[in-house]
C-alpha cells in the first residue's frame, strides 16, 4: 500500500493538479503555508466504488494502474466496513437502535505524505485540528508523528503502532450526535528525523442534505441538548470558510450549532 503511495507522489505536478473536488481539502494539496510546507495530500471520494478509484488513477497515470486500483479499492472498502462496525458498536453502547444515526454516506480517502524537516528540527507536518467528517480511521506506516491532545492540554505521540493497527477518530458531527458524550479528538502531526512519513485516512462523509440530530434518548435533565440539529454539508463548508480560519478548530462546532442555553427534554416537551 505505502509502496504505491511512493509511486503516487512521484507523479508530475501537472497531473496531481487534476485531482480536484468541490469539497474543500478533498483534492490534491501540495506543500503550502496554509497547511504545512511538509505536507502533501491526495483526495479520493467514494473509495469503495471501483469506478471512482479507476477515474482517479487515470488522472495520475493516463495509461492506467490496475494494481493501484485493486489495492486502494480493497483497502478503502475494508476501512469503510471497519468504520461502520465501530459506529454500530458506539450506537449499541448507548442502547440505541441502529437507525438512531440516520446518515447516508460515502467514504473519502486521503493519502498523505509528510516530508522530513531540516536536520535536528521538530516541525509541524499538519496543524492541530478536530475532524469535520463524522469519523476517521487512520492507517500509517512505521514512522511516528501523529499526536493526540489529552485533557490537561498535553500532547501524546502515538508510537510503536503495529502495521495492522488503526486509529479511530471521533469527528465533530459525531460529538454533536452524542450530545457531547463523545469527544472529537484534537490531533496534529509533528515531524522530526530523516524519514518521510506516509498515512491514509478514511472519512465517513454524509451525503448532501444529511441532518445531524441528537437522539432524544441522549437528552435529559442531566444531559441537556448541547447542539441544534444542523445540515452536515453547511457545517462542513463553514468549517473551511474564510471567517472560520481565525477560529480554533475545536470551537467551530460550537460557533455553528451550539444551543445557548442547552435544552433538556423536559423543557423541549413544554
From TrEMBL:
Database matches in SUPFAM superfamilies: Clavaminate synthase-like (SSF51197)
Which molecular function term from Gene Ontology is one that the record holds? oxidoreductase activity
What keywords appear on the UniProt entry? Iron, Metal-binding, Oxidoreductase
| UniProt xrefs under PROSITE patterns | FE2OG_OXY
Q: Which Pfam families match?
A: 2OG-FeII_Oxy
Any keyword Transit peptide?
no
Coiled-coil spans are none
Q: Which InterPro entries match?
A: IPNS-like_FE2OG_OXY (IPR044861), IPNS-like_sf (IPR027443), Iron_ascorbate_oxido_reductase (IPR050231), Oxoglu/Fe-dep_dioxygenase_dom (IPR005123)
Tell me where in this chain the Fe2OG dioxygenase domain is found.
Answer: 105-206
**What's this protein's family per the entry?**
Belongs to the iron/ascorbate-dependent oxidoreductase family.
State the protein's name: Fe2OG dioxygenase domain-containing protein
Amino acid at each position: 500500500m505505502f509502496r504505491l503511495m511512493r509511486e503516487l507522489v512521484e507523479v508530475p505536478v501537472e497531473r496531481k493538479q487534476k485531482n480536484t473536488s468541490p469539497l474543500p481539502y478533498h483534492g490534491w494539496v501540495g506543500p503550502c503555508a496554509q497547511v504545512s510546507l511538509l505536507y502533501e495530500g491526495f483526495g479520493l471520494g467514494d473509495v469503495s466504488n471501483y469506478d471512482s478509484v479507476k477515474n482517479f488513477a487515470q488522472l495520475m497515470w493516463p495509461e492506467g494502474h490496475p494494481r493501484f486500483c485493486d489495492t486502494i479499492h480493497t483497502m478503502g472498502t475494508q476501512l469503510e466496513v471497519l468504520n461502520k462496525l465501530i459506529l454500530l458498536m458506539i450506537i449499541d453502547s448507548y442502547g440505541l437502535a441502529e437507525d438512531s444515526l440516520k446518515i447516508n454516506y460515502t467514504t473519502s480517502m486521503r493519502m498523505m505524505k509528510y516530508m522530513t524537516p531540516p536536520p535536528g528540527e521538530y516541525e509541524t507536518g499538519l496543524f492541530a485540528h478536530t475532524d469535520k467528517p463524522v469519523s476517521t480511521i487512520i492507517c500509517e506506516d512505521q514512522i511516528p508523528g501523529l499526536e493526540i491532545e489529552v485533557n490537561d492540554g498535553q500532547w501524546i505521540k502515538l508510537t510503536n503502532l503495529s502495521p495492522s493497527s488503526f486509529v479511530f477518530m471521533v469527528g465533530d458531527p459525531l460529538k454533536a450526535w452524542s450530545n457531547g458524550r463523545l469527544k472529537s479528538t484534537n490531533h496534529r502531526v509533528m515531524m522530526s528525523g530523516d524519514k518521510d512519513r506516509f498515512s491514509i485516512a478514511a472519512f465517513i462523509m454524509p451525503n448532501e442534505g444529511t441532518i445531524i440530530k441528537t437522539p432524544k434518548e441522549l437528552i435529559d435533565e442531566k444531559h441537556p441538548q448541547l447542539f441544534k440539529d444542523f445540515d452536515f454539508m453547511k457545517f462542513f463548508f463553514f468549517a473551511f470558510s474564510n471567517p472560520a480560519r481565525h477560529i480554533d478548530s475545536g470551537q467551530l462546532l460550537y460557533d455553528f450549532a451550539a444551543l445557548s442555553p442547552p435544552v433538556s427534554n423536559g423543557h423541549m416537551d413544554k
